[in-house]
Automatic annotation (TrEMBL):
<dbReference type="InterPro" id="IPR038056">
    <property type="entry name" value="YjbR-like_sf"/>
</dbReference>
<dbReference type="InterPro" id="IPR058532">
    <property type="entry name" value="YjbR/MT2646/Rv2570-like"/>
</dbReference>
<dbReference type="Pfam" id="PF04237">
    <property type="entry name" value="YjbR"/>
</dbReference>
<protein>
    <submittedName>
        <fullName>Uncharacterized protein</fullName>
    </submittedName>
</protein>
């Protein structure tokens, strides 16, 4: 298991996945919608997701276009945008599993990503909306996005193999 960030433990650290191993449903025994209703500081949530993503095997942070992206094997799996506070905080992730993708789109203000990325499963989730997803759920989605992009060797390493 890869331990990375406070309160953002990956799939290997808990067993709250839904059908087919997808993130969603119950998180640590608490209803997701209830947890989403609790407001959190968007900058802190963004940083927790960033730290979690950078703790996954083979990841690096780069800054194309002046925005933070996390890559694995030279491919982006999460866009974090600009972290200077001049733009609304949000994350963009690739969520291919239909139930996870649909769940992410129920987040307040969430929408398919721009520039045609939405057609490939990318979802933009704002962090500044009331009822935005908690960091823990966003970390689950970051791991799902990582698993879509990462090579099998790194996924096996994440799973302890």
């Amino acid at each position: 298991m890869v331990a990375v960030s406070v309160e953002c433990v990956g799939r290997a650290g808990r067993d709250e996945r839904g059908p087919g191993g997808a993130a969603g449903g119950v998180v640590r025994g608490t209803d997701v919608e209830e947890r989403m209703a609790k407001a959190a500081d968007p900058a802190k949530v963004r940083e927790r997701v960033r730290a979690f993503a950078l703790g996954l095997p083979g990841t690096v942070e780069e800054f194309p276009w002046g925005e933070s992206v996390i890559k694995v094997n030279k491919r982006v799996f999460i866009f974090l945008g600009v972290g200077d506070g001049n733009h609304p905080f949000g994350v963009t992730l690739k969520l291919k599993a239909p139930e996870v993708h649909a769940h992410a789109l129920t987040s307040p203000g969430a929408q398919p990503a721009g520039y045609g990325l939405g057609r490939s499963g990318w979802v933009r989730v704002p962090l500044t909306e009331p009822g935005a997803p908690p960091a823990e759920l966003l970390c689950d989605w970051a791991e799902e996005s990582y698993r879509v992009i990462a090579p099998k060797k790194l996924i096996a390493e994440l799973d302890g193999g």
